[in-house]
Design brief:
single chain; 147 residues; alpha+beta; two-stranded antiparallel ribbon
């Protein structure tokens, strides 16, 4: 993997984990909003199954048994799903969102789970920022050596 490829992976991952942090912040902000349904981010790994990637995987052990194909690292944002867990029913007959029986559905956001998920997202963001910083210093050292 080249320095530029590692930087590209880091940049894409920063964008994905930044969206993830924003989504957790939105969930926490709507903790007390009636009928709000918690949103869950969906992330997937990026895989490179191109001809170039497969040839790179085969160059050491050409046609060997059990050769593992080359996969490009990284993560992609695949969207958002709603948490199917129902929020608690609360009796508030005068509320504008109340049903025919006078009940509203509380938000299904659990603040402890959401804070833990937000902290995990923050750590992933910081790790990818470190990847970019290290790649940048490697590129700078390579330029210094080339002078």
């Amino acid at each position: 993997m080249s320095i530029m490829e590692s930087m590209d992976i880091g940049v894409k991952s920063l964008a994905v984990h930044g969206k993830r942090i924003d989504l957790h912040a939105k969930n926490i902000a709507n903790l007390d909003t009636p009928n709000y349904v918690r949103k869950i981010p969906v992330l997937n790994a990026t895989e490179d199954l191109s001809f170039h990637g497969l040839m790179n995987a085969m160059k050491e052990d050409v046609f060997g048994v059990g050769t593992i194909p080359f996969y490009q690292g990284g993560v992609v944002w695949s969207g958002v799903v709603e948490d199917p867990t129902l929020g608690e029913k609360i009796y508030k007959p005068g509320h504008p969102d109340a049903d025919a029986n006078g009940y509203i559905r509380a938000s299904n956001v659990n603040p402890l789970v959401e804070m833990a998920d937000a902290q995990t997202s923050q750590r992933a963001y910081e790790a990818n920022l470190a990847v970019l910083t290290i790649s940048k210093s490697m590129a700078q050292k390579a330029i210094e050596i080339g002078r």
